[in-house]
Design a protein that fits this description.
Layout (H helix, E strand, L loop, with lengths): L1 H9 L2 H8 L9 H9 L2 H22 L5 E11 L4 E13 L3 H70 L4 H32 L25 H11 L1 H21 L7 E9 L4 E9 L7 H66 L5 H35 L11
Antiparallel strand pairs: 1-2, 2-3, 3-4
Helix pairs in contact: 4-5, 5-6, 5-8, 5-10, 7-9, 8-9, 9-10
């Protein structure tokens, strides 16, 4: 919710009203979406990633240096005294991390926990993008099917008019044959479109637990949006993107790892406690040992390798930020162009609808041929289908922008 409130400060009030939910009538219910995303395989599989990072954090805090037990058995022979004795030596050893390394490992552990949390948000966002695309694929197929049904209804209505004219002797039977052929073609298109709708619904049902819309009503959908400032959207997308946050955390982890490797120039001491039993038990010795590695010839190479990995992580982070920025710019440009095209398409639909109605009346009066009327009807339906597709594409692109900004279907922990 913090990010949504932050956006409301930057955007004008008129846009903020649209940002909340401009295409709510075309979107699935919020509860169904959240239930579906919770059960999505990507989100479920991410639990393993979270468990790994948590275990990794615990490893860093606890350390990896085990206690080592040492036992030695030797035989002492005193030739002068002609005596033999068996002597035992036992010891416990453990390498001790320096305080600076312990502090650095705790920072690495905290980064691992952050990565675990962010990985869930990234998986949720990716699943939301897939669900949104599948949902609008079904909506577009449903809208096309509705337009075909509308055209079939117009043909059935016109068939009744033709039958009346044929009965009155005002039209040849050939005209009815032409309309019946047109209807047969359209019925075949409907079967094909119905199969396409069934296929898209099957894709949607892989991850969506709710029901798709049975009817797509585009009459109340806004065709114009105040998109606001481009830079504001870019900042919001970058601030909300879990993939970018993950890349930042990975870069941070690589920087900390480089510092951790550099700290190995100060070797950790190994502390040992020993007990020896010598001279057939006449001497019992307890000792304390400290060993320190003097020089590691590969240390400089290890530091260079860590620095190279850190540089690579930073480059990947910058590349990702550039890609997200470019995608957001392209989506806003696409939305702006879609609005202009939608206005033109709406004007064309209005014109074609008037023409179709005019030709229908003219045909009833015998002023135009049946072919002229059929052509006007096809042009009207095609223009309507193109407008519907533009409306749905506009709704999909804008909804995707909201999903990327985490203003729609965001993870509950982010709100």
């Amino acid at each position: 919710m913090k990010k949504i409130l932050l956006l409301s400060v930057f955007l004008p009030n008129v846009l903020w009203a649209q940002v909340e939910m401009p295409f709510s009538a075309l979107l699935p219910p919020e509860n169904d979406v959240r239930q579906s995303l919770e059960q999505h395989p990507m989100v479920q599989a991410n639990q393993a990633t979270m468990d790994y990072e948590r275990a990794n954090a615990q490893r860093l805090i606890q350390g990896e240096d085990p206690w080592q037990a040492r036992f030695a058995l030797q035989q002492r022979r005193n030739n002068q005294a002609n005596l033999n004795s068996v002597e035992q030596t036992m010891g416990l050893e453990k390498r001790l991390r320096l305080p600076s390394k312990v502090a650095m490992d705790k920072q690495l552990a905290q980064t691992a926990l952050s990565i675990a949390q962010l990985s869930r948000g990234d998986a949720w966002h990716e699943a939301a993008k897939i669900l949104l695309a599948d949902w609008f694929a079904v909506s577009k197929a449903q809208a096309n099917l509705q337009r075909i049904d509308e055209q079939l209804a117009l043909l059935d209505k016109q068939l009744a008019v033709i039958n009346t004219r044929i009965s009155a002797g005002d039209a040849p039977r050939l005209e009815r044959l032409l309309v019946e052929q047109e209807r047969a073609k359209l019925a075949l298109q409907r079967q094909q479109q119905h199969a396409e709708l069934a296929q898209q619904q099957l894709n949607l049902q892989r991850y969506y637990r709710g029901q798709p819309l049975s009817y797509i009503d585009l009459s109340q959908i806004p065709s114009q949006l105040n998109l606001g400032d481009e830079q504001t959207w870019i900042k919001q997308v970058l601030a909300a993107n879990h993939e970018l946050e993950l890349a930042e955390e990975h870069s941070k982890r690589q920087d900390l790892h480089t510092q951790r490797v550099a700290l190995e120039n100060k070797p950790d001491p190994t502390l040992g406690i020993t007990y020896s039993r010598e001279q057939a038990g006449q001497e019992n010795i307890i000792g304390l040992s400290v060993s320190v590695p003097l020089f590691n010839p590969a240390h400089k190479s290890l530091v260079n390798m860590a620095q190279a990995q850190a540089s690579q992580a930073h480059y990947q982070q910058q590349q990702l930020a550039q890609r997200l920025t470019q995608e957001t710019k392209q989506r806003l440009l696409s939305l702006s162009a879609a609005q202009q095209q939608l206005q033109q398409a709406q004007d064309l639909v209005t014109q074609q609808q008037a023409n179709s109605q005019l030709f229908a009346k003219a045909y009833q009066l015998g002023e135009v041929s049946i072919n002229d009327w059929l052509l006007s009807m096809r042009q009207y339906v095609e223009a309507s289908q193109q407008r519907d597709l533009l409306k749905l594409s506009l709704a999909e692109d804008y909804s995707r922008l909201l999903v990327d900004s985490h203003l729609l279907w965001g993870l509950a922990e982010d709100e």
